[in-house]
């Protein structure tokens, strides 16, 4: 499996050219699951408080997603886009493979003034894919433990989190490796993988867009919270070979974080799952 740190913008043809190249490189490496960043189709927001420069709104059943399906072929590919649903717009990620759409997630948690541009999603649901049962998150969703836990309780073995996660906007260091928001991005990735004992695949934008400078740091994390591959604070593709079922069985053999939950002790947080 592989996670990408790459720059995407308003030029959809340019975005698709990059995606085609990335899929080709991943296929040459034997990758079966490829995670592209949030807003890979059309770029992220230039201004968090709205404004005229908005991402193109694409329908789930439109020609752009059909093109992504065709490019993916038998590979499972996840990519972020601005989804049009009537007059509403959502910050979404789609998962495609085998000639069809496998799943879709609409970002639930909206940071700062992102809600000036998008409506909010309202659910977390896992779904079956050729590489295992998979859940999707977008960027700020991963700051909330309930997001990933909901997917894990729904049987997700792999969680793909696509992001347009920027570095600090105040007191920003010259080196992104020293940025506090890079550190937080990495901590969330490792913590969410470990506490749910799932395989975690984290993609992110790179470069700059508008006033934002993205931290890259695409990675694959195993169910023990160990980083198997990362791009660091540079563009690239983090590739790791993971036997998913074996990795989950090994991690959960003695201390099963999902199995050993006590929902009766914290009923206000989550009901018991039967």
Characterization of the model:
The protein has 274 residues and is α/β, with parallel strands linked by helices. The protein has helices at residues 12-28, 63-72, 145-153, 180-196, 244-252, and strands at residues 2-6, 33-35, 57-58, 76-85, 88-97, 100-106, 127-129, 132-138, 158-163, 199-205, 208-209, 212-213, 219-221, 227-230, 236-239. The mean pLDDT is 95.
Question: How much helix is in the residues?
Answer: 10-25%
Rg, rounded, reads 18 Å
Number of E strands: 15
Mean pLDDT: 95
Keywords: Hydrolase
InterPro entries: Aliph_Amidase/BUP, C-N_Hydrolase, C-N_Hydrolase_sf
Pfam family, one: CN_hydrolase
Domain CN hydrolase: 1-244
How would the blueprint of this fold be written?
Blueprint: E1 2-6, H1 12-28, E2 33-35, E3 57-58, H2 63-72, E4 76-85, E5 88-97, E6 100-106, E7 127-129, E8 132-138, H3 145-153, E9 158-163, H4 180-196, E10 199-205, E11 208-209, E12 212-213, E13 219-221, E14 227-230, E15 236-239, H5 244-252
Parallel strand pairs: 1-2, 1-10, 2-4, 3-4, 8-9, 9-10
Antiparallel strand pairs: 1-15, 4-5, 5-6, 7-8, 10-13, 11-12, 13-14
